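Convert to structure. Protein one:
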Amino acid sequence: MLVIIATLLAGLGLFFVGLQLLTENLKLLSGRRLRENIAVWTRNPFFGLAWGGLFITITQSAAAATFILIGMLRAGMLGVKQILPILIGMNCFAGIIILVLIFDIKLVVFFLLGITGLVYSRDQAGGVRATAGAAFGIGLLFLGLNTTQTGIAPLAEMPWFEETIAATHGSYMLGLLVGLVLSFLTQSGLAVMILNLAFLNAGLFSIEQSVMIAYGSKLGSSLLTYVLSANLVGESRQVAMFQVYFNVAGALLLVPALYVEVYTGLPLMLALGAAFAEDPAFQLAAINLLFNVVPGIIVFPLVPIISRALARHFPQTAEEQLSKPKFLLDQSGDDPHNAMRLIELEQVRLIEILGHSFEAMRSNNSAARMSLLNDSFQSLGDSIRAAISDLSNQHQLSPVLYERLNGLLNIQHSLETANVEVQSLSRQLTLLQGTGLGERFSMVAVDGIDAILLTFMDVARERSDLDAELLAGMTSEDGMTRVRKAYLAEDESMDANARMQLLAAANHCERLIWLFGDMGSAYRNLGTA
């Protein structure tokens, strides 16, 4: 029994390590230029289907692939109408890997692991290393799945397991539940299907029960996507819910069809599987593929209608508009001067998000809006950092341009630090609510810092000497220190906890004042670079 458990754990371990290695190396390969090319290629819906097949083949996880696409959506590289065909293709091609695994590909996997492992282990491999690492991860995935299949087979000979399986004989709905739970817990419908095939080959489940487990694994994947997307709104939610609806629609169509076929003899999916091959494993793989293909064929022509319906139910939010680059998508890779100017324009948009954050602090539902604005800031910030990195890697810049690029990078770091301080200030001011002194301090702090931020924004946009001198004057004085001391002295009955909260909020304000002043000087230097 220990050998079986060890083999199962080894197989699952190899699978998930391979998945992690694959993901990490794909991040190294998926530069901004590749993502931009994907955005161009997927404008044709049929190319979108092909890309969906590639995504699921590489990631081996529908939930993971869905959130990769959501990330590209939030970066402004893909629209919802482009993503929906990709998701359809992803689902349609998801069953192909199961068909491949039915064949004995261990020898091919060993060759793949050997060759890519040798390349990956050589430090001098350079740019080839990431590609080799991704291929090595794919090899580990297949080896893990094959090991898992091998480990399950001996279970069929164990009396206690046979009795357990016998107790579930004929319970198709139980198979659906088992597939759903296992897929949700392992976060991989593919891993569940491998277990399912192994159980079927060992004679532990009937073909009907195995089909229901396959259907359940699809629902479990959708449940996982639904849970992980609970905090998403707008277009991101549209993408996630389409993936959820796709599998749910397939289950609503095909689960009743199985009962109809079993109890009436009407030839449906089981008959199609039997027509495909005599081997039950091939039948299961074929039915699993049809589960995805049948809804895909129905849904694909309806993408424009579905996208409009999703937009009505989950409309785009103002925060989503803020999170998407407006200028970097038109960035010219041949003109570093223009590229830097576009980066500067996007950084001004980050400052605008900080301004919206101070507006949110004045609202009743500040915590929820602050969280959305923080997500927008980080998403746009990631795009800006990627653009700065691409500019540095793709061009041989002059010393003057490198100095300017370094200034932009320093400003980016300061803006990100300022966003952290703004989020911390918001949480601290929330703790001060309920006391008259705390609420008065909150009002003065928010209005005062917001006024400084607006002046800083003018400096970033216009670079006028007058605005820069005004900002320098506003940030050089220790006015916030005097305000903090005045409030602490006003109410000596203030308890120690409230005083510490007020002190913490004031410290966040002081750091923000310093950051805005420092970045104002940096922008002034950029203007003369």
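Protein two, convert as well:
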Amino acid sequence: MSSSLDDFSAIGLPRGATVGDTDYERVGLHLLETLDALTAVYESAEFFADIPGEAAITAYALGRCVAAANGLVGALLLDGDRGLELHCSHNDGAALLDIDAVRQQDSTHAVFYNGEKAAPWLVDRDAGWNVLMAPIRAGSRGLGLVVVLRQLLPFSTLDTNLVAAVCSQAAIALSSAIHYRDVELERARLRSLIDNHSQGIVVLDHEGATVLCNPEACQLCSYDAAAAGPGGFLAHLASRDPGMTMASLAGDSTERELEFDTGDDRHIVGIHANAIHGQDGAIATMILTLRDLTRIRREERLKRDFLSLISHKFRTPITALCCAIRLFTEVDEAERAELVEETTRRTDELTALVDRLLYFSELLDGSWSARGEGDLCRLRDELPDQLARRYPGRSFEIEWDLAADATALQVPAARLRAALDNLVDNAIKFGPPGCAWVRVSSRRTAGGEVQIEVEDRGPGIPAHEHEQIFRSFYQHDEDFTGSVEGAGIGLGIVQEIATRVGGSVCYRDARPHGAIFTLTLPASDPTGKQS
């Protein structure tokens, strides 16, 4: 189909046209204007597709609108909770505008004002600027308002449509950016909540791959996400329990327990799985929650052991007391004196046992202060007499070897006395018949701490029991038959004290036989000088 110039009806003068231009020249200029408009819209769409952020979107939109409308200056106002707020300005266009008047403008559609009609929006009413306003709208929501100003050449409908097209593209991008920002903020809040949660949280996808694993889960299960293999966290669990699979976890809602070694500690971890299914019924996501059951299981074991202690360790002295009381009126005076002595001894035994249990309960409560200072020299002078009164018929020798710079400790005196008393007491109690030998030494470590060693020549501790000896209520007399004195909490007391003040206690065999307990505690004088 052929056409002629008569088919085109040019409206107004295109940019750059003069009165003397022919119709062909004007049509050509109109076509160039249209191409420029399409180029501006496509370039804007391409830029906005990347969604680089709200600030970049608004800055680009303002600059593109000013260029598209051949404006000289411009300003962009963004919608806020309290109305339009100035965001940015091109060539200081905002200084020319009466911002309060602009805020009152109905910004539903793009409009332009030329000459005198533009005066109400200007600070200087006689400045001679033409004003074009185009809203940035997403549906019914107004996000912003672009204002373009230029002198001499009036704005036309083409300018308005072109700027409106750019603003329409900006509205889509800006709405997406705002939504993306809100999603990222919500995601950051959720991630912060998960990362700082007291329980471990792990998210697996439908194939069992690790999507998320918070720090608490990594710590509880000794899991290194950076060094994890292709199976991720689920494979880490399966290495402890082959039954840890997606199918088994989804089909069993009961809490499972696994043990993990974390340095010198061992954690008992409870694992609960919650499977989220998709519309097709298949597993879409698996959420694992993990909690540390170590303390709970420890308390349960303490309760069991304490009941065993009550039923066995207390039974022997109580039975002896009952028998002595029943026989008291049936025997002669000489036998009565023996019964009084036996009753006194059994009463002292029960009192000491109760006192030690109360002391241990106080330590476990954790409310006692770890501040204070203790002196090994003072204990060297006082401890032997106390032990002699405790074991009147027992012969023992304590050899002291205290370094001059390793006697003052940053440990409350009463707690230091209790820790050392328990270690030396065990050495005497479990020592060989005859004279029990104990050596107490101290030295300063390279790290500025004090190491106290208590060594004996007793039978030592079987290798299979090394990991159990610091367990509360544990004794070599595991069945609590009463053949071994005490409650099995002496070493537990030592460990509680050492841990609370920032120290440690460990055991090793002596040579050729015997036991060595090493107590590492903070020094009172970190410079190493004798206090």
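The radius of gyration is 43 Å. Confidence is low (pLDDT under 50) at residues 1-11, 476-484.
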